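User: Run a structure prediction on this.
Assistant: Running it now.
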Amino acid sequence: QTANKLKELCNKYGHKNLSPYRIPCHVDGSGLGCGVIDLAGTINDRYNFIEVINNKKADEDMENYVMGKRSEIWIRARDLARKEALSIAMLPKNQQEALLQELRMPEFTVTNNSLIVLESKEKIIKRLGRSPDFADSFGLACQLDKPTWDNFTHG
């Protein structure tokens, strides 16, 4: 169901300069997300579903700044927002409000090694009363390839 929805959106937003098969779709590869990756398609018509494992270490350019991929995802999304490089204005108002509530919920700590750590999802769920699925999806959508990220952060 999720894989088909992603394919539908890729087909909707693809155009002559961007094949639907090339649109990067970052998918949480832990838990149920691994099935979505498996349904990306065959060799000749494979969509660009990119597996992200939240409990892995942060990318090399972030490993001295954050602890773990999950913290990295949230920090990268925050940095894009601070640079005004993204907008949620096209979302329906109720989805904007739910997303903002979820994005404001997590607490961050700093380790003895000065690494930023996002609090556990379980703690967020306990305070929020539900899983922060909108925020998790938003964070995955904000994952950019290295050249694009460098343009936003250094350009």
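The first helix runs from residue 2 to 13.
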